[in-house]
Amino acid sequence: MDETLLSKAFVLCLLALGNLDATPLQKVGPRIIGGHDTKIEDHPYQVGLIVDNEFSCGASIISPTWLLTAAHCVYVAQIQNSTIQVFANSTEVNSGIFIYANQSIYHEKFIYGLEDYDIGLIQVSEPLKCVNCKPIDLDTAGPKLNQSATITGWGKINEMDLPEPHKILQKATVRVLNQTLCEEWYLPKKKYVTERMFCAGYAMGGIDACEGDSGGPIVIGGKLAGVTSWGIGCAEPKFPGVYTKVTAYLDWIKEHSGIGSSK
């Protein structure tokens, strides 16, 4: 049986048993801690997702009608037949211009509860036309060790906070970390950093994405290098943020949205 169908059946069983929150997307997403307030004018590609009237995740505008986000940000919404709404052109959460999603797509190899292939697309019902709604180019070079990267989002700014979004968009600067070291840090926890992911942050912790930032952008050199995906805790030493690597999915993005160029 197809792995995606198996995973769907598993989640549906959990829902039936009441083991998943009725609006799980705001909680399944990991993970800005150690950042500061910023303005949407400086990050006009950033948008937020609202699922069943509650903030869930971030996303990035890659064309007037397509957004790139994490698979886990749309997966359960599809299973529950939930409505996805997008807000844009606003520094404040759940504000600005609102538009409904026309369709959402997640990678066919994504399995709910695992971290790999955590990439998804959302097509909005009409083109985003606003002052601070500008597509960001997809990275085609891939992240390099020690490169400076920018993460943004409305996620928690303290790991102990209640699972609610931060009112003002946050920004932080992180560094691309050694892939092998990151794999070794996570391996004892039986978490696997694959070649389709990269790690960014600091070995000592202190700055990181957090719950609610999932699906949002990590930008290197002005291009979208990754999607905020997962991690253990927030800003913990030797547990940096793990991001879906855009260059690993250029063909997939092109196939499903027509955006970008194939590898």
Automatic annotation (TrEMBL):
InterPro entries linked: Peptidase_S1 (IPR050430), Peptidase_S1_PA (IPR009003), Peptidase_S1_PA_chymotrypsin (IPR043504), Peptidase_S1A (IPR001314), Trypsin_dom (IPR001254), TRYPSIN_HIS (IPR018114), TRYPSIN_SER (IPR033116)
One of the GO biological process terms: protein processing
Subcellular location(s) of the protein: Secreted
Keywords of this entry: Disulfide bond, Hydrolase, Protease, Secreted, Serine protease, Signal
PROSITE patterns recorded: TRYPSIN_DOM (PS50240), TRYPSIN_HIS (PS00134), TRYPSIN_SER (PS00135)
Keyword Secreted: yes
Pfam families registered for this protein in UniProt: Trypsin
Domain Peptidase S1 positions: 32-258
UniProt main location, coarse: secreted
PANTHER family membership: AT26814P-RELATED, POLYSERASE-RELATED
The name this protein goes by in its record: Peptidase S1 domain-containing protein
Organism, as annotated: Callosobruchus maculatus
